Amino acid sequence: MGKHRYGAVIDAGSSGSRVYVYNWLEAQSARAKGTGDSLARLPNVKTKKKWRKKVHPGISTFGGKPELVGPEHLKELVDFALDIVPKDEIANTPIFLLATAGMRLLPDHQRAAVLEHVCSYFRQNTRFQLPDCDLHVQVIPGETEGLYGWVAANYLLGGFDAPEKHDHGKGHSTYGFLDMGGASAQIAFAPNATEAEKHADDLKLLRLRKVDGSALEYRVFVTTWLGFGANEARRRYVDSLLEAYPGEQELPDPCLPVGLLVDQTGHEISSGSPGLKGKQPHLIGTGVFTECLKRTFPLLEKDVPCEDAPCLLHGQHTPAIDFDVNHFVGVSEYWHTTHEVFAMAHKDKAYHFHTYQKQVTDFCSRDWKDIVLDVGKQKWGKKVDEKIVEEVCFKASWLINVLHDGIGVPRVGLEPVKEPNHAHLNKTSAIIDNAKDRGFLDPFQAVDKIDDTEVSWTLGKMVLYASSQMPPASNALAVGFGGNVPGTKMPPDFQYASGKYEPLPTNVTDGSGQDWHDRMLNSSSPRRMSGGLILLLIFVLVAYLLRGRERRLAIYGKLLSLVGRSPGTPRGKRRKASRILGGNLFGHGSPTYERVLEAGDPDDYELGDIVSEERNSGSSNGMTPQTGRSSGWATPARSLSPDFSRSSPKNAGYFDGVSGSSGGGNGLGITPFVGMNMRTESRERLAPRETGRSRAGSPNRRSPLTPFKENLD
């Protein structure tokens, strides 16, 4: 094993799959090169822009043809990863395929078949480390995605490694995380001390491990809102327009630029199209953004009863957010909708509510034809096409409503915001470029990259995994997440970052830099002698098994004499010795042999057996073969194949609820595996699980950490 470890994660989304490759220093190398500060940090997980690749369409399109998912979808991603990972490190490199959307909509049998073929393709066509497909190939719920995103954001901003530089007040140093895809939106944050104590049962315990083996622990709230992604919100919005204008052919839409005609699915229609009349109702843009804000507000479903206060959206319980200490970063749609058009993807443009709303209002009131001309001139860059500018007005109104009326983020520029002590600093490029030095100042900031690293939940997954590979300090508990339990108890639903396996050897090199297997072959190594003895014993055993039956019996007699027995030993004792020293290797498993042994003297039997062997060897004599006296080697071997079927663990936790494998899928469920030939990957030292009561959840509401059947992200 070299000084660097690698890992590959495939984000299998609804529109496509993207592979990310990461690396970090192996534990011993990191400790040898580390100083006091670096040892007290999490592993330095790195990636490069050229270390990621995306293919289309999504993996869910293979539901009816799962056998093609490997050659027609995975091959390009796998080959890409294989070109990055050094060849001598491939066998030490774990690969994960985690599906976040699309796959949840497939029937159970199709989803299981696709995941099964993914696993088979990985194992048959690569040498990547893949000990457990339930852990490495699965569908994850939105809450897990949100938690991984929270880890990634805080890892890149420095909230974990240098909390003193990110003191937001009240002992709070971490950032909240917001993510919005096509079908759902997620939120993850660590409440202040008061709220954390009040809503302890709603939090998740997250444990990481530093290079020096010491643990980091956080209590995080995470939930997902289904149907609150940008695409699903637009679909619900169009439905509301159809209800507001029953029987109308042309529906005025204030969330579209002036004069833009689209059908109900959002596809543009030519104004002179003869098919407009008599067809399905269509939408025409009026470009009144203030009206758009009013019409999208009901989609927040704030009127849904809150059975367990406080709630934010759709009556789902969420601890109160203290924006004095909870500063949020938003990714995906939060970034694209605020920056692609209105900031031209410049990372030094901070989100400012008043400025942003004015920009959107001016843009959406423009005539569609003029906007198309600007797209042709690449006014907003090469990546902005007509589809993006067509959708941006609705998405902007939805984002504003979710942020400020839904989550409650203060409107910077209109509402008073408590300024931290260092608020006088410039709020432009320094906000991100120097994030690790001082942190974000505002309650919300949209980000895409930090220090040229994409803020992706896949990074959070790999940070957890790399953290679990650091040998633990004394009494350190396992890395992963689960129910919020006090003290050192292990939650019954704890999800291990890399599986419940035995640790790899930590002392893989010595001072000379030799690997352990090189030292075994070194003549000066004390391990060489034991390895040589084992090899010699193997040769002796093989040579013994290849001897003829009569020779084995002769050797057997000599062995009996060495332990104080003789060929004349009483039958009962001799049988017991034979079972100890060989069993069926001497033919004792044959029923005919037992009958002969009981019928005659043992010495006569051995002599007679030699004669029978001679008769059987010559079929030309016309003698009938006596199969009853054949050696034990002629007996069909009993199958010794252990059961590698993937069954759900007895204590399946919250994240195990989503179907994720051929075995039914267990979210992040961990399946014990057997077999001496399976390689292990985790460096976990697992504390004994203590039996305890599960978290007490409210009987009147759905737990925020219960997986849902989610639509496409």
Please explain how this structure is put together.
The chain is α/β, with parallel strands linked by helices. Among the domains are: 230-312 and 328-442, 2-Layer Sandwich (Nucleotidyltransferase, domain 5), CATH 3.30.420.150; 549-630, no CATH class. It is built from 22 helices and 18 strands. The strands form four sheets. An eight-stranded mixed beta sheet has the order 14-13-6-7-9-8-17-18. A five-stranded mixed beta sheet has the order 3-2-1-4-5, sandwiched between helices. A three-stranded mixed beta sheet has the order 10-12-11, with no helix packed on it. A hairpin with a 2-residue loop joins strand 15 (449-450) and strand 16. Helix 3 crosses helix 4 and helix 9 crosses helix 13 (386-407).
**Quick one: overall form?**
globular
Q: Provide the spatial order of strands within the biggest beta sheet.
A: 14-13-6-7-9-8-17-18
Radius of gyration equals 33 Å
Largest sheet: number of strands, sense, barrel closure: 8 strands, mixed
Q: Helix segment count?
A: 22
Strand coverage percent: 5-15%
**What is the level 1 CATH name of the domain at 230-312 and 328-442?**
Alpha Beta
The helix content is: 25-40%
The total beta strand count reads 18
CATH A-level architecture of the domain at 230-312 and 328-442:
2-Layer Sandwich
Report, as a whole number of angstroms, the end-to-end distance.
38 Å
Mean pLDDT reading:
76
Could you please say which CATH topology of the domain at 230-312 and 328-442 applies here?
Nucleotidyltransferase, domain 5
At the fourth level of CATH, the homologous superfamily of the domain at 230-312 and 328-442 is Exopolyphosphatase. Domain 2
| Unreliable sequence segments | 419-439, 501-529, 571-713
Structural class call reads alpha/beta
